[in-house]
Amino acid sequence: GGDHTVTYPILQAMAEKHGPVGLVHVDAHTDTGDTALGEKIYHGTPFRRCVEEGLLDCGRVVQIGIRGSSCDPDPYKYSQDQGFRVVPAEECWMKSLVPLMEEVRRQMGDKPVYISFDIDGLDPAYAPGTGTPEIAGLTPAQALEIIRGCKGLNIVGCDLVEVAPVYDVSGNTALLGANLLFEMLCVLPGVKTK
User: Fold this and answer.
1) Which domains does the chain have, with CATH numbers?
2) From 174's CA, which of 90, 121, 163, 165 has a CA 20 to 30 Å away?
């Protein structure tokens, strides 16, 4: 639950303890907008604010599943200009993400990493209970490949955001979100899963 603004103060705290962190960000949107309705802090701006404050190690940021509507004619430009790796959803369609996560693990190295998972990274067929659904997203199996692919990284924290129970008439979104959070807990350093 919670919208993606919650990640901003969390990353402030993480950077205070660990310095700039790497980021594995799963989302339909880059969340690097500048303002909305005149406000600089909202769920579409957290990662721009994090860049501005030096909270992210920009060469170790990957955004996976990005797609959907945007008011910007080049919605990936800001991220790419910062050195983020942007993996649009169409690069993920119909394939395993295990090879991608092998590359991501090399990119992240042994320095601190934070995982931020917006439930709208998944296709609304699986996770309709969110405020900004976008078609043609990731599958639950791909979500598991991403999270399980983070095992062995120096993960210092994680979140799962944007579950909106009022839109989740079946309860599937909450079930999926809870399971993905459990999977994130299982890949934290020192957690024994066997």
Assistant:
1) 4-55+64-187 (3.40.800.10)
2) 90
Asked if 41 and 34 count as a contact pair (C-beta separation under 8 A), the reply is: no
When pLDDT is averaged across residues 52-63 and rounded to a whole number, the result is 98
CB 1 within 8 A of CB 163: yes
Question: Can you name the residues that pair with 115 across neighbouring β-strands?
Answer: 24, 158
Mapped onto helix, strand or coil, the DSSP state of residue 36 is strand
Instruction: Answer whether 105's CB lies under 8 Å from 145's CB.
Output: no
Please state the pTM of the whole predicted model. Answer: 0.97
* Residue reference for tokens 């945007």: 70
Q: Measured between alpha carbons, how far is 33 from 112 in angstroms, rounded to an integer?
A: 25
For residue 85, give the DSSP letter: E
Mean pLDDT across the chain, nearest whole number? Answer: 96
Q: Show the tokens assigned to 23.
A: 């980021």
